[in-house]
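re: ur question from yesterday

yeah so i grabbed the chain u mentioned. its 65 aa long if i counted rite. heres the sequnce exactly as i have it in my notes:
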Amino acid sequence: MPQILQPDNPYTLFLILILLILSSMPETETHLMFLKSMLEAVQFSVRTFQTGMGSLYSLTQLAAK
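ran it thru and got these structure tokens back, copy pasting raw so excuse formatting
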């Protein structure tokens, strides 16, 4: 059995809850897809921001020399 499905794993109950919600409310899938796309956009924005801040830090280090 995969480690994530072990009875003592805290994510097992969460997965069961998600499956029950999806089976009882089919429109939940569209909401979860929207949430997924929103989180992916936030992740992309944060990575872009981190890259920009890293470049800015490198430039300030070069200017300080």
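noticed a couple things. The helical segments are 10-24, 28-64. also The chain has one domain: 3-64.
anyway ttyl
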